[in-house]
Amino acid sequence: MINLTKSAVNAVKGAISTSAQPASGLRIMIEAGGCAGFKYMMGLVDEPKLDDTVIERDGVKLFVDNKSYAHLAGTTIDFVVALEGSGFTFDNPNAKSSCSCGKSFG
After folding, report:
1. pLDDT tens for residues 32-91?
2. Could you give phi then psi for residue 13, rounded to 5 degrees?
3. Which residues pair with 81 in a beta bridge?
4. Which residues have CB under 8 Å from 90's CB, separation 6+?
5. Quick check: is 47 in a domain?
């Protein structure tokens, strides 16, 4: 299961409502790279791919490919507003290590 905080749900709903392109949900992926080995990738999309798991949280659809889902199971995604900047954060119990930017893990 992947969880979204209320703040993350509101951020995604806001992004979908102002998107110039049609969007029905948020794709979350894990790719090799980043400073710790894997990096989180996110983007608005209009529809799921054939191998996606579709998760709905408080009216927000998440599209996650099966390979990425194994790395994301149990993760809580939050949207934080801070002086240093705003953005999504990931509390991933599968991460053995993470970098200081919070956007990659190992």
Report:
1. 875 657 788 999 999 999 999 999 999 999 999 999 998 899 999 999 988 777 889 889
2. -60, -40
3. 86
4. 40, 75, 76, 77, 102, 105
5. yes
Q: Is residue 102 part of a domain?
A: no
Beta bridge partners of 64: 28, 53
Q: CA-CA distance, 32 to 104, in Å (whole number)? A: 9
The answer for residues whose C-beta is within 8 angstroms of residue 27's C-beta and 6 or more apart is 41, 42, 43, 44, 45, 52, 62, 63, 64
pLDDT digits 0-9 by tens, 55-72: 999 999 999 999 999 889
Q: What CATH code is carried by the domain that includes residue 16?
A: 2.60.300.12
